[in-house]
Design goal:
The chain is α/β, with parallel strands linked by helices. It is built from eleven helices and 18 strands.
Amino acid sequence: MSETARMLRSTVTDDGEVRLTLVEELVPDPGPDEVVVAVEASPINPSDLGMLLAGADPDSLSSDGEVLVGRLGAGSVQANAARLGAPMPVGNEGSGLVVAAGSSDDAQALVGKRVAALSGAMYATHSRVSVAMCVEMPETVTAEQAASCFVNPLTALGMTETMRMEGHTALVHTAAASNLGQMLQRICIADGIALVNVVRKAEHVDLLRSQGAEWVVDSSSDSFRDDLTDALAVTGATIAFDAIGGGTQVDVLLGCMEAAASRGAGFSRYGSDTHKQVYVYGGLDRSPTPLTRSYGMSWGVGGWLLTPFLGRIGFDGLMRLRDRVTAEIGTTFASHYAEAISLDEMLDPEVARRYAVPTTGEKRLVVPGGAL
């Protein structure tokens, strides 16, 4: 095909800057099992920001009208050393119409269809995508609804799947008022799973309770530790997924799990024998994660990412989860956006400062064509 696409590129320079630019490139012809998607919508997830802004200070963002520039600290430059000087595509997922396809039957069957797609290059007017990373959407599903079919839905389902795979019966989630958190709450209600939601504001407690959440605790409350321990004792939750990462949140989760598990038990110098697990899957706080080790000897802390999890469950497991997302994209897995922005607006420093900091209720949607 001879389609020319506008594409966002992010480049980290060796003098400590990240530079966002829009380029025009000819879209390569799709291979046999590939399609070309005319992108209609693509969300800005927290997982996109690392590639997009590379850890730049939002207050440092400036533009000459064509290039958005941000300053990086020494640690961010070191963390991005492998990509220095390389213009990187951005945008993990999105939705759009298939305008060209390779020769395989599966690829040809998608021509003219709206798909949800995962490519890593969706902040563009067109993106070449593997058929295996496309999901055909029903005609009743809008581009906005289809845009967030992969990252948040599969992450939320991955948490409940991990819980079951590792022998736990209930779970804890932090920063729980987010789009992902609300989605996880809907899954847990539907599946009969006890979920303890940890939020950071009193209004977020009200938000989740209005949606049917039974256990919601506010980390800004003076009674937070007692409230969390009580909820853990009632639900029996022994696995947590933490979006914060830094600070004392992980330590508090383990300490309260131990306190809940030890209620009514006799003294043991080694603590309870109930295994307590916290997985860090986000980095809203980039400070260190101190552990006091005051929760016995049966505990674990680790990182959790979607891609390795999908590798664990295999292709059949992925298809099972993907089918559920497709069937419930307008209900259980619905996402909500505070603002739609164009590719050009992504280079506006004021707009960039808004999308650079993940904030509850402030998710942004990139609309490469400028409007839906």
